[in-house]
Give the backbone structure.
Amino acid sequence: MQFPRTALFQVSGNALQGVYQVGFEIDQDITKIIIPLALDSVLARAVDSGCIETAVAEETPDSSQLPFGEASGWCMAVPVPVNGGDRRGHLR
């Protein structure tokens, strides 16, 4: 209810690959979406910093840093290391 549009991505090499989404009206399967970590995006910054990152549409007028290129006003990316992995998913 707090986050009606949510997407889950996993680190795959030097990119993020979509795993699951709810609330986004996208034409393609989320698993087909690949976002290079080299791009300056809120998602890539969260992976790199290992911290919660946010973006506001007014700060990103071309909406290139917002997921799916949609200006929703505000977005948040939360990195979640699993299975003993570091922020890029590598095992320690």
About this structure: The CA atoms of residues 42 and 66 lie 7 Å apart. The two ends are 35 Å apart (CA to CA).
